[in-house]
Input
Amino acid sequence: MSGRPDLLQTGPMMGMIEAQLNEHFTVHRLDAPDAEAVLAEIGPRIRAVATGVGSTGGGARRVTDALMARLPALEIVSNFGVGYDSVDAEAAGRRGVVVTNTPGVLDDEVADLTIGLLLATIRQIPQSERHLREGKWPSGGFPLTATLRDRTLGIVGMGRIGRAIARRLEGFGRPIAYHSRRPVADVPYTHYPELIGLAKDVDALIVIVPGGAETDRMINAEILAALGPKGVLINVARGSVVDEPALIKALEDGTIAAAGLDVFANEPHVPDALIGMSNVVLLPHVASATHVTRDAMGQLVVDNLLAWVAGKPVLTPVPETPVKQAG
Output
């Protein structure tokens, strides 16, 4: 390929990503004040899109079918994150555009954080720390908490991260079961073909499935009721996977005992009702947020684009889209 390809960047990205994009591409910004004028002028020349960070909250930064229609030369969308629900991958596939994501490099980090969030929620670690910091300990110890010792643990989703979570949970010596569309051949845990059955039989439900239409609000009032008054919900997947109003009501009514949430329906905005509850642990979408892991994710965004530029197969295409190389 002669010259530097024109690339559209949908929003702010890590400095190490932006530096490499500017080195290898002619970068245009969708978040610039004159984005509409820029799109009108250079849209027909755009052959690549870099997206991910900051792209899930605002519709203007999503890679929609409508946006791709304005980019007739588009060949690749490189997404930061294992989840790519900010990209209309099915529409990209119909248009012959390959979409890539960043799987693998964040599995262990997210699994580590998930275990921490599970323990923090069940043992009320943040709440007990506040008890100490607020000077309440001299007046009485923190109340006894629930425990992991008497629980059956359920995982919704048994992909790479789900399996990494399960391997860590094995060390706690508790029964593990999971729900997925099909049984996973190489795992020893009990498979539940129906989510409602898993929810009824476990005491903690860890959600780690992709976002998108198929999983939208799959954790609803019925599932929460099945989980029951001893139940704990942990969501490290996408906020869209949980019916947030139903969860708030379940927590308020004692339908379930507690929740640990790293993701929310309308990030970065979190409902006041959740913030005000004492039986939830809330994190600002930080499951993969370490220097080492985010750098590895960022480099994979760039490496997919550079493979395409070099006419090689991209490294991590998503299943909805073709593997396409630069011509």
Q: What stands out?
A: The CA atoms of residues 46 and 233 lie 43 Å apart. The chain is about 35% helix and 15% strand.
